[in-house]
# Entry
Amino acid sequence: MIYHITDKATWLKASGSKNFKAESLDTEGFIHCSPVDKLLKVANSFYKEHTDLLILSIDESKVKSKIIREDLYGHGFEFPHIYGELNLDAVIKISDFKRGENGSYVLPDKI
# Structure
């Protein structure tokens, strides 16, 4: 299982279609994803100013586009990147990504 963080407005644009296209697909050539153990670090580092975030739980075996694990930014860890649009039938769960009392994101009980 891999995960993608997006805002509700971006996700709603995909409703009625068969594929989801994150902005990063146009700007970087892939959709950023993360393993569950990196979600909080990613959210609290890159999405501090965002609200209304969602976590897309993605079944890798159902993704039709190519997935490559790579460390493009020297983080010392390889993140999964989807090189193409994400077919919606690979998204098996959508969870709200909420903040805790201290303002940092916290993982939902079940994602």
In short: The first strand starts at residue 2 and ends at 7.
